[in-house]
Amino acid sequence: MKSINRFKKITAALALIATFGLGQSYAQTAPKKMEKEAKKTEQKVKEVKTKANETETKAKAASAKATEKKDAVAKEKSTQAKKAAQVETKEKAVKKEATKAAETKTAQVAPQEKAVKKDLTKAQKQVSAVKKEAVATADKATSEKYNGHTVYLGPKGGKYYINGNGNKTYISDKK
Description:
Elements: H1 2-138, E1 140-146, E2 149-153, E3 159-162, E4 168-171
Antiparallel strand pairs: 1-2, 2-3, 3-4
């Protein structure tokens, strides 16, 4: 029994030593593992920082491009506005010139037009007088008046008068 007890004591002591020995080996490997994990996390942190820096530079570049585009658009709009203003002033000048030309032409044409109108009215009066005379000589005038016009008696017995245009207008007997 003593040998069993001794055996138990030895195994217990070995177990204790083994336990402390394993603990010691674990204690030696644990910092190495932790160092590896720390390095991995540091690498991940560095990667995240570089990605953040890249996105930040991209964002800055994009905002710079956007401001450049805005400036270009604003510049283009201002040049278009200036061109529109120039075109508008040119249009106004052309309109003024056109109205002046029209006024001078009307001033020149107006007397000629009046003279032509006078000649035309004289010719129309002469034509109507000639028509009346021609009708009057062919047909007999009666003593009747119709709407202020002299009534004539045609060769077949129809009654008519000469209207303002110099044409015959027949009067119907039905009333």
